[in-house]
Amino acid sequence: MTVPKIGISWLGVKLGLRMLVKQPGMTFVAVFALAIGIPVGLAPIHLVNAYEAPLPVDDGDRIQLLRNFSLATSRVDRTTPYELVQWREALTTFEAIGALRASTYNLDSDDGLAPPVRGASVTASTFDILRVPPLFGRTLLPSDEVISGADLVVT
């Protein structure tokens, strides 16, 4: 069995170019549809891949996310400290359960020109989950999680 050769028909290319020139409106629509349709079609795939990508830490693919979802508002609800304690008691198959709230913090400097800094308020188990040691000092301890405790900074 022989496989037929697929060659370019120069006559087909010539006729195609002639039609593109004779029909500029259709050419614009076709180019616009390709220019918009391809990125719009690929965007969901890229978003899913970015969302499911593991964290850039050792064993980042083992970390999971728990959230409260409100059926009434169809939105993610904020998790309360009470719910976190309930999850820690009920979900015994997890090694550790932690919480974080990302925020921007204003720092005080001598000249008053310190830019805002991105950070997060985290529970003590966060460093155990991420398996990342601090650059300076120690990580948080469970005794640091009390509401009346002092604010601590870990870098």
Q: Would you mind describing this structure in some detail?
A:
The protein is elongated, with a radius of gyration of 28 Å. With 155 residues, it is α+β, with helices and mostly antiparallel strands. The protein folds into 2 domains: 11-52; 60-132, no CATH class. It starts with 9 loop residues before the first helix and ends in a 25-residue tail after the last helix. The protein is 37% helix and 12% strand. The chain has a two-stranded antiparallel sheet with strand order 1-2. A two-stranded antiparallel sheet has the order 3-4. It has helices at 10-22, 24-52, 81-90, 126-130, and strands at 68-70, 75-77, 100-105, 117-122.
Measured as a percent range, the helix fraction is 25-40%
Strand order of the largest sheet: 1-2
Tally of individual domains: 2
The separation of the N and C termini measures 69 Å
Mean pLDDT over the full residue set: 83
Radius of gyration: 28 Å
* Classification by helices and strands: alpha+beta
Give the DSSP E fraction (strand runs of 2 or more residues). 5-15%
Give the topology string: H per helix, E per strand.
HHEEHEEH
Summarize the biggest pleated sheet.
2 strands, antiparallel
Report the strand count.
Answer: 4
